[in-house]
Amino acid sequence: MRFAHRLNSLKSNVFADMDRAKTQALAQGKEIIDLSLGSSDLPVAPHILKAIAESLDDPTTHGYLLHNGTREFREAVAKWYTYRYKVPVDPETEVCTLIGSQEGTAHLPLAVLNPGEYTLVLDPGYPSHVGGVYLAGGKIYPLTLRAENDFLPILTEVPSSILSQTRLMILSYPHNPTTAIAPFSFFQTALDFCEKWDIILVHDFPYMDLVFDGQERPPSILQVDRDKKRSIEFFTFSKSYSMGGFRIGFAIGNPGLIQALRQIKAIVDFNQYRGILNGAIAALASPPETIQKLVKTFEQRRDTLAQSLKIRGWTVPIPQATMYLWTKIPSSIFNSSLEFSLQLVEATGVALAPGIGFGPAGEKYVRFALVRNPVILDLAAEKITSFLEQKT
Question: What 3-state DSSP class applies to 303?
Fold first, then answer.
């Protein structure tokens, strides 16, 4: 049987390899401590669940939901964004409902990229940013992130011969996996760069609330591109509200880009169940304490795991944002981060995300997701230490 050539670029999937390894370890009787996925273990707030539950008894919510039916949600999004970032948003032309921000970053290239055109993506970076470009027949030019540059790309390193063929640049700060935060000045530089080369500026913004130690809220790209001339930003309810399984997000940005994204979406799917949108509306109206409690929980977990690893010989940079630790493997006996991660889960049941899964620049790193309570995180650090001692 013959398949489309576009699948060739999607064959290598480190996270599928890890999933198989976790399944095998579980079958062999290992208790899995899964720190490989950024899937929150925290419960959804009761007021959000109540809004969803009350929708179930309303038969008007049971049918297909077309674009016009999402208006109440889009109005809530526009109101929330305008209040938070002081940038006016038109709910009719500048907001698009999504099944998580991953859908948006994967589908946008289909709307704006012609085969053979380039997209600038962060390396390491979130895998769907690359996958969507390949599905659209585009080419990738990696923006290598280095610790000595605070994991911010040096845009002047991109050759002009590439830039003349570039259509998109995809950024994401606070950054997964490196946990880096980008200042407002960097976004201004990025916007100026994109204006010079006529590039669409995409910002994936799932960790907007997960900043620690009392730091200021990270900037939105639309605070820089206030007129939304060439920018679009993606949001999700998976991190701030622990609603990953409900699959709800949205995009805000340039009306032309929003319309183009809607055209792709209309071909691929209808919208989610209206009750989920009602829950998302309730989430956007959450009291500040809801987010503050979540942030404090992940901050405590960060401190626990970082300290547990440090006393066992790891060099662990303390992240100022996201729900991860990103650190180099403290051993040279492994040929790759994937080899280390596969052997670790097989031997101990502790699953981490190998850095190579986020791009070549992620090699020799691993990512810990802070998605278990402090006692389990400390146990994971103990198991990893025993594993390394046995290997050396």
Answer: helix
Type of residue numbered 166: T
46-284: CATH number: 3.40.640.10
Query: Which amino acid makes up residue 170?
Result: I
Counting DSSP H helices and E strands in the chain, the numbers are: 13, 12
Q: Where are the domains of the chain?
A: 5-44+289-391, 46-284
pLDDT per residue as tens digits for the range 64-117: 999 999 999 999 999 999 999 999 999 999 999 999 999 999 999 999 999 999
- Residue at 81: amino acid letter: Y
Write out pLDDT tens, residues 102-138: 999 999 999 999 999 999 999 999 988 999 999 999 9
Question: 90 in helix, strand or coil?
Answer: coil
Residue 332 DSSP one-character state: S
Cβ pair 78, 94 in contact under 8 A: yes
| Radius of gyration from C-alpha coordinates of the chain | 21
Q: How far apart are CA 227 and CA 128, in angstroms?
A: 27
Q: Does the pLDDT of residue 291 top 90, yes or no?
A: yes
Eight-state DSSP code of residue 372:
S
What does 187-249 look like in DSSP terms, one character per residue?
HHHHHHHHHHHT-EEEEE-TTSS-B-TTPPPPPPHHHHSTT-SSEEEEEESTTTS--GGG--E
Q: How far apart are CA 124 and CA 189, in angstroms?
A: 20
Strands 231-236 and 249-253, bridge-based pairing: antiparallel
Q: Which residues pair with 325 in a beta bridge?
A: 368
Superfamily covering domain 5-44+289-391: Aspartate Aminotransferase, domain 1 (3.90.1150.10)
Place of tokens 């999933």: 19
pLDDT for res 5: 84
Is residue 215 within 8 Å of residue 331, measured between CB atoms? no
Distance between CA atoms of residues 45 and 51, nearest Å = 10
